[in-house]
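ugh ok so i messed up the first submission bc i forgot one of the chains. this is the corrected input, ALL of the components this time, i swear. 312 residues overall. if the numbers dont match what u have on ur side tell me asap before i send this to the collaborators (the ones from the other lab, u know who)
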Amino acid sequence: MANMKVEYIPIARRLDGSYIQLTKMTVGSGSPRLFLGASIHGDELTPIAVLWRLVEYLKVAEVRGSLIMLMGMNPEGIAFGTRYEPYFKVDMNRVYPGSGDGILPRRIANVVFEIARESDVAVDIHTSGDCIPYILVDPVGGEIRERIMEYAGSMGVTVLDEYEEEQYRAERLGESLPPKLIEENVPAFTLELPGGVNIDWTGVNVGYKAIINLMVKLGMVDTSPVSIDEYPVIGEKGYRRHDVRSSSAGIIEPYVKLGEYVEKFTPLGVIRDLRGVILEWVRCEKSGYVVAMPRRSVVYPADRVFLMAVKD
Ligand SMILES: [Zn+2]
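and heres the new structure output, hopefully the right one now
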């Protein structure tokens, strides 16, 4: 059994004097050092249970190197079920590297960043609703991209490139954790699992197995890679994530399934008004795979309704 250490890192005080703190668990010691961050978005809970399961496994396994885990990086957001840091309503995955003397969300981001930058590989774990599990790789070239692709590719789930450049910039994804770590020469990427405010327990299994596969790749555990067959896997490389938006609000009926390949302009679903009159056929202008389904049956005007994997 590997040695385990739990630390509570105080960030700031609440008005009752108690601490807002991060829970850090370290298993093993030395290199390689694998960083795992869970739930910087407080309404994405599946990753926390993935870390619990890893801890259970590591109680009975030998581990080489160390696993550094932040067990819920947005504790107040988790408590309130919100994506944001609730006091300042800030998306903490858009303020990295943060700052030690900034407002609360920037301080939390800074603590996360300083811990993660000491690692050899970093995985930031999120959820993406009703989705296939997938890895997002930030736009970066050269040798570090090769290392990222090698690690990501070992995990047994779909690997996608990020949004096209304009949207990547507009959504300030360059200020999320992985690209800021890549600037520090740490291979880092995002793992998206099924679920949200409700933990998807099949997604937990998948996330757990994917991390074990990465640990096998890093030589941290003596076991064989495990196959992931709970969800479809897009084996082909070179796909990127792409939003399909609606124009109309209404109630959506999907016509496609997760992981399905759909030719361009084929209807992905239909949006109706309250009487049932068809307002819109939702289509993607590119052929590709269905990565995530609509989050709700009610679609907002000009909403993101499907996430696809497409090629240019
Ligand atoms: Zn997220």
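quick check: Residues 134 and 158 are 5 Å apart (CA to CA). that seems consistent at least. The pocket of zinc ion is lined by residues 41, 44, 126 (CB under 6 Å).
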